[in-house]
Specification:
With 368 residues, the chain is of the alpha/beta class. Helix content is 41%, strand content 13%. The chain has 13 helices and 9 strands. Strands 6-5-4-3-2-1-7-8-9 form a 9-stranded mixed β-sheet, sandwiched between helices. The longest helix has 21 residues. The radius of gyration is 19 Å and the shape is globular. About 1% of the residues have low confidence.
Length: 368
Amino acid sequence: MTDLGRIRPLWRALARVAESLLRFRRVGYLVVFVTSRCHLQCPFCLLSSDPPGSRRELTLAEFRLLACKLGPLVQLSLTGGEPFLREDLAEIAAVLLTRTRAPYVSIPTNGWFTQRITAFVREVLPRFPLSSFRLVVSIDALGEEHDRLRGRPGTFQKALETSRALMDLRQSHPNLVVDANAVLHDMNQEHLKETLETLHKTLPFDNLSVTWARNRLSAPALGADSPGRYREILESLRRLRGPCENRALSAVWRAVAQVTREGVAQVLSEGRLPAPCVAGRNLVVLREDGEVLPCEMLDRSLGNLLEHDGDLQGLLASPQARDLTRWIQRSGCACTYECAMSAGVVWNPGRWPAVLRAIPGCMGRADR
C-alpha cells in the first residue's frame, strides 16, 4: 500500500472518531442483525432460545429507506444468525456504507459459505477502500469437537477453508482483517486455551478473541471456576497476536479490545461495570425486523425504525427511548456484552488512560 493509501484511511478514521466524540449523544456504533436465521444448531447461541427466522426481515428496499437518515458512524457491525445466509448482504453493506461511511466494519460468520464470503470480499471491499472490514470466523474447538458444539459435521473444515481463503485475499485487499473468535462456555472451557494456542501456531489470524457465553439458558451452567479460566485466557491473548495488520489505528483498537475484556472480567468478579454503559446512546442494535434495542442483552425496544421514517436520532429522542436510557444509567445495569463494553471504553473518557497504557503491548507482531 502506498503512503497515500495508508494516510487516507487513517485520516478518515481519526476524523470520524473525533466527530463522534464531539457529538457525544449521537450513535457512533450500530449493530445490524440482518437475519436471525442460521443453518447450525449451537446451544450456546444468544438466539438459540428463539425459533430461527421467527421474525420478518427488513428488505433491501427498506434498508435503503432506513439508510437515508443514518448519520456517520465509527463502527458498523453486520451480524445474525449467519449473516451470509442473506444473499443480498453485499447490497445491504453497500447501502449502509454509502450513507454512514463507517471506517470500521465487522462481520462475524461460522465460515460455512466460503464462496459467498470470498465473493463478498471481492465485490464490496474495493468499492469502500477507506473502510476496514474485519471478518471474524467462529472457531470454538478443534476438529470434530467443534462440529459437535456447532451441531453439524464438517463445520470445522469449512471454518478453516474460509479462513485460509480470506488470508489469501488479504494479500490483494489491504482493508481486510481476518480474525477468529471463540465463545467460552461450559462445553469447551477446559480446552479453549489449547484451541487458541493451536490456531495461533497454525494460521496467521490477525487477532484471536473470546466471547463470554451470553445465552440465558447456558450461562448459568458455567462453573464457579469459569471466571478464573476466562482470566487465564485473557493472559494468553495478550501474547497471541497475529500479523501487523493494516487497519488504521490497529494498536489502539487492539488496546480497546484488551480493556474491554478486562471490563468483562470485572463484571464477572464484581457484578458491576467499570464505567457507565452507553448502550442506547452511542451504541444501538437494529434488529432484523426494524426494532431498535439498546443492546443484545436487554430485550426492551426503543421503538421500530420503520415507524419513525428511518430517523434513528429522532427515535432516540422520543420519551420512550429517553426513559429507557435513563434507566440503564441509573439502575447500574451490567452485563458482559462486549460490543456495549467496547463502546463504553471509547465513549467514556475515564477509560482512555487504560487504553493508552495498553497500546505499547498491542503494537507489532507477536512471536510465533
